[in-house]
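To the team - flavin-adenine dinucleotide complex, inputs and output below.
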Amino acid sequence: MTHCVPSQEEYVRTAIEVSTRTVMSSIPDVLVVGAGAIGAACARALALAGARVTLLERPSPTGEAWRASAGMLAAQVEAGMDNLGLDLAVAGRAFLRRNAELLLQTTGIDVGLMECGILRLVRTEAEVETIKEQVAWQRQQAHRADWLSVDDVADSWPWLSRCLGGFWSPEDGAVDPERLVAAFRADAVRLGARVVTDTALGLDRNGNRLLGVVGDARRYPAATVVVAAGAWSGRLADLPRPLSVEPVRGQMLAFPWPAATPAAIVYGEGCYLLRRGEEMLVGATVEHAGFDARVTAPGLAQLHRSASAVYPELTAMQPLRSWAGLRPWTPDGLPIIGEEPRLPGLWYATGHGRRGILLAGITGDLVARGVRGESLREELSPFRPERFWNW
Ligand SMILES: Cc1cc2nc3c(=O)[nH]c(=O)nc-3n(C[C@H](O)[C@H](O)[C@H](O)COP(=O)(O)OP(=O)(O)OC[C@H]3O[C@@H](n4cnc5c(N)ncnc54)[C@H](O)[C@@H]3O)c2cc1C
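Output:
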């Protein structure tokens, strides 16, 4: 299964077509619920594909994942041994790498792409074998990945604590998630999308016919609705089936980035650290805490301990700030992307868990192609909504 990323030429051609189109109707073709990472990316891709798009975002922020996110493009270091979703993750990374420059040109927003690679430290003998297998498997799939010895790690990252080796993924990296969302939104607006501030309460439907969305302020008629409300997606009323998306809290800490230490992204046991600006971001807890997006003393203490095991100087340092957000989590760790078979016109783009920044652009692209009528049966099969609650 491969996922195509649109070329720069295709992008420019479609953008010109869209910008010269006359919008005749006041009824939007597509209503996207949620202007976070996924919703904003979908709105941009749909507008680029020629749809009239309305992007609905609620007025008061409460724990959105994109605001809390570290923004890593950890396509390979986070791939499990089953490698489910690896193709999508690699396509997601490629999409963002190719679109960073385009977004800068069209919106003036620099999404802060870091193409510095990601190092995953290995600390137990058992993990050494697993990671070596993982590296070998990824190389067989034509991905760049290396096993680094203890000395390799110590030579290149002398400021890290001793370990048994490392998984080096030179293609992985990061973006600034807040800037990415701002850029997707701005580009969507440039292409004709309308951003409306209101809370979606539920679907507006007449039996098996989708009419649009019921908002807090008013109704929004739409033939096509994309549910991209993150951890809150399943809370929309009148969905045709329960949505298997639950909030999973992630707490984060920031310390000053140590002077003279080069930028890096490093995974340790139960934590990662990366440079953004002058800060060292440390993340993240993985907690089922309902819709409570507050930080907790035990959560932050655990993070501080884990990060100090990677970078011992942190032990004596005080964090500059802390925050938390709610990831949209599915039971199998894969997103839900596709049209609801029971209600034509209803699309889901949610449940991206800990990889929604990485997967935002490619998800938008897939949704736009699907809404436009392209058959994506094979590409979307692992992510189809009916894999849960199929009775
Ligand atoms: C601490 C932390 C660290 C992370 N680190 C990474 C990382 O390094 N790399 C990575 O790829 N991913 C990371 N993630 C995950 C990533 O942030 C999420 O997967 C991604 O943000 C999900 O995007 P989303 O648009 O589905 O949800 P969100 O980003 O939560 O956005 C949903 C949007 O919908 C809006 N909304 C909700 N309900 C309604 C409604 N009823 N009406 C209107 N609007 C509504 C919300 O206000 C919000 O703006 C991290 C997440 C957390 C919490």
